[in-house]
């Protein structure tokens, strides 16, 4: 249902899907009450309209949305077969879709209406909160590679969450590794301990720097990580958060 939201976080979108009608209407109401702007994307076109939720009419299974000020764009929206919506609520990304949109009026003004979506995606749940790891004296992960690729090799981390890590592979040692699993990896978390887990490479991003050097950032998912190891990760994230908050407050 959601593959057209193209970004790395959505590879496992099923894990973030909300199916409870009560929770869906509550989230949509919250978006409307906080006047959060919503990106409305016409599927198959690079046509984006900014809208907002005017009302969630639960008894009639209807969500009223603001129109575009562009009449031609409104026509394209009404003619589209599928629409995608993206917004945030309390720093959480919310995504949903509609197969049909209709013209309506709300409090005497032109509006759109869609059915209450049967599901939506609520991303960045607290346990998947990502935090950048130190650039100086970086945290490193040891990945056992085949002998022909150099054997045990360490890579610096870029960020960490309870779902996985991002690593920097600037020497391109892992090649086209998306989907590959690496067993018996070790992450040394300062003042916390060593985390043992398998990693699966989920996405790759090459960035060209100003000096024309290329940085490769690989998103890795924890596979089969134990509860005890996960608690180490959570403690380390909490430690980084405290240090960052102290810096912001000027305490360190």
From TrEMBL:
GO molecular function, one term: cyclic-di-GMP binding
GO biological process: bacterial-type flagellum-dependent cell motility; regulation of bacterial-type flagellum-dependent cell motility by regulation of motor speed
Signal peptide from the UniProt entry: none
Compartmental location: Bacterial flagellum basal body
Positions of the PilZ domain: 124-238
One GO cellular component term: bacterial-type flagellum basal body
Domain Type III secretion system flagellar brake protein YcgR PilZN, residue spans: 16-122
Keyword terms: Bacterial flagellum, c-di-GMP, Cell projection, Cilium, Flagellum, Nucleotide-binding
Residues in coiled coil: none
Summary of subunit composition and partner proteins: Monomer. Interacts with the flagellar basal bodies.
Protein family per UniProt: Belongs to the YcgR family.
Function: Acts as a flagellar brake, regulating swimming and swarming in a bis-(3'-5') cyclic diguanylic acid (c-di-GMP)-dependent manner. Binds 1 c-di-GMP dimer per subunit. Increasing levels of c-di-GMP lead to decreased motility.
HAMAP family (UniProt xref): YcgR (MF_01457)
Name assigned to this protein: Flagellar brake protein YcgR
Originating species: Duganella vulcania
């Amino acid at each position: 249902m959601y593959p057209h939201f193209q970004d790395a976080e959505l590879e496992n979108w099923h894990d973030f899907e909300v199916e409870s009608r009560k929770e869906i209407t509550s989230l949509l109401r919250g978006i409307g009450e906080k006047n959060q702007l919503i990106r409305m994307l016409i599927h198959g076109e690079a046509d984006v309209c900014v809208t907002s939720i005017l009302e969630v009419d639960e008894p009639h299974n209807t969500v009223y949305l603001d129109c575009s000020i562009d009449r031609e764009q409104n026509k394209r929206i009404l003619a589209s077969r599928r629409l995608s919506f993206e917004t945030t609520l309390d720093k959480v990304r919310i995504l949903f879709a509609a197969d049909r949109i209709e013209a309506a009026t709300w409090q005497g003004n032109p509006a759109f209406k869609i059915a209450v979506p049967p599901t939506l995606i609520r991303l960045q749940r607290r346990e998947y909160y990502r935090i950048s790891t130190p650039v100086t004296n970086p945290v490193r992960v040891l990945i056992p590679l085949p002998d022909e690729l150099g054997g045990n090799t360490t890579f610096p981390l870029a960020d960490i969450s309870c779902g996985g890590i991002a690593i920097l592979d600037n020497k391109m040692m892992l090649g086209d590794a998306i989907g590959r699993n690496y067993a018996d990896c070790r992450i040394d978390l300062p003042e916390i301990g060593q985390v043992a887990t398998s990693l699966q490479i989920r996405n790759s991003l090459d960035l060209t720097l100003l000096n024309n050097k290329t940085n490769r950032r690989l998103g890795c998912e924890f596979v089969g990580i134990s509860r005890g190891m996960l608690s180490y990760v959570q403690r380390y994230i909490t430690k980084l958060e405290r240090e960052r908050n102290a810096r912001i407050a000027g305490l360190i």
